[in-house]
């Protein structure tokens, strides 16, 4: 993360409003728009921010489909083939990137059919959801949240990264998830998500975020 970047404190409400304005501006000029909300699972609440965008975007005239990367993880037999606590496997192989691109993001290319599969794999029951595809109307937006999303070639019109300092990440990760810390360290070192993202939000204090300027 660049030490020269400037951040301004912002309320959560104002953050949601500014993001909704930016997404709506994008969506006004495209058939469909894809937004990624990226951050460490269980440490940054990507789900809450993604959910909070739904109503403001609808008020601004854009239908929204919420998708979670957690519903596009690989089956347990593949995720846990080398044990349940392997950070390299979590980093490299937990997410079914090809399925996410094929079923969600690819169909929303300008020439796509606009038919999206909202969820693929139920990790609780470890079986397919078997849902029908959803047709996103023109002007619609898909908001996808999850972890370790950037640097994988996932197409999107806007990528938001919720950034935590290493100390805050360690502090906010539950004890039973701290084994994943090396995966997040690799992500920061190899992908540099704060440099790839269009929007970066510092979340060391989730009640008092700070938005990168510029």
From TrEMBL:
Superkingdom of the source species: Bacteria
InterPro entries, sorted: P-loop_NTPase
Protein name: Uridine kinase
Organism of this sequence: Saccharomonospora glauca K62
Lineage: Bacteria, Bacillati, Actinomycetota, Actinomycetes, Pseudonocardiales
């Amino acid at each position: 993360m660049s030490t020269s970047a400037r951040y301004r404190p912002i309320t959560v409400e104002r953050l949601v409003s500014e993001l909704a304005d930016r997404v709506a501006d994008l969506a006004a000029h495209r058939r469909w728009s894809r937004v990624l909300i990226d951050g460490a699972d269980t440490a940054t609440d990507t789900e809450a921010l993604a959910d909070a965008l739904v109503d403001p975007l609808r008020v601004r005239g854009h239908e929204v489909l919420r998708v979670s990367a957690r519903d596009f993880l690989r089956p347990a037999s593949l995720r846990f083939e080398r044990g349940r606590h392997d950070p390299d496997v979590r980093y490299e192989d937990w997410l079914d990137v090809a399925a996410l691109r094929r079923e969600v993001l690819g169909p929303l290319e300008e020439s796509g059919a606009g038919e999206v599969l909202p969820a693929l794999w139920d990790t609780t029951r470890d079986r397919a959801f078997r849902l029908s595809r959803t047709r996103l109307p023109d002007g619609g937006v898909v908001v996808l949240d999850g972890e370790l999303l950037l640097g994988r070639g996932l197409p999107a019109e806007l990528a938001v990264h919720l950034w935590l300092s290493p100390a805050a990440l360690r502090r906010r990760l539950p004890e039973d998830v701290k084994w994943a810390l090396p995966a997040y360290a690799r992500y920061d070192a190899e992908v540099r998500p704060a440099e790839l993202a269009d929007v970066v939000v510092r979340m060391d204090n989730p009640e008092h975020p700070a938005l990168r300027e510029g």
